[in-house]
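S1.2 Input.
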Amino acid sequence: MITMKKVFLTFIALGCFALGWYLFAKKGDLVVFFKANSSTGNLYNEVMHWHFNNELIKPVALQEIEEYNELEEELEYQGASLKINWEFTYENDSVTLVKARITEPSRSLINRLTIPFNDTEIEENGYKIVYNFKTFLEENLSMIKVTLEGTKDSPSGYCACIHSSSTPQRKAFEMMKNYNYVSDFLVDNGMTLEGKPMVQVTHYDKVLNKIEFDFCFPVKRKDSLPEHPEIFFKTIASQPSIKAVFNGNYIRSNKAWYSIYDYAKARGFALQDKPLEVFYNNPNFGGNELNWKTEIYMPLVE
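S1.3 Output.
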């Protein structure tokens, strides 16, 4: 028969266990969370760059825990040395839960003892840091739009191409540099354009954040092709893919890749990291960037 003494001792044991977990095992002295209308991969990459907008924050170290889902950084803010564990949890195709677990290693035990009873410095600093990131994120999200359209076959075509390498973010600069270079060559040699310019990524090194890609113009095939030391001709084959439509500056089109990754992971699709992008606007003409349209096809593993 369960006695009151046993019940009392059980509550004491559970209380000691909970206190021990809170003081010594809980991840983070302070946990701050919010929901973002963004993909896990985009949030992951935004965390890697947001510090540069705030002179009060000095990044010290950054460590990947799980690709696109969790990373840990060390930084200095207002004279305090902090560790932040960022975790991004997919909820649906447009919403991700962001958790920031903030620890001040030199004062961790004191912080955990005082946070429930007083307003503390780590709370003030932690909320300011997360608010700063959230503001930075929302400003960037206001400049883009990503629409997922599910599984589609990518377009095919016979193309004149030039090979480049860069970071995903600098891909647009390489395109602008080569746009007239390739198109003038085609016009000078009487080649007829048959579609929108495309970028086909041939290699993506996520660790180094580098891509190799071909910038291509679909053309009408001719029996006799002009020769050029850098421009070459190839056939781009159609592939079963996941498609997204991206609106915004082409320097940010890789943000749609991360939305496709989340979409595929949630549905059990395996992807090749070789996206094909089709561009509907010439960035050299300017205009409202949210009206620029890019179709993005991430091929499925067959």
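S1.4 Remarks. DSSP finds six helices and 13 strands in the chain.
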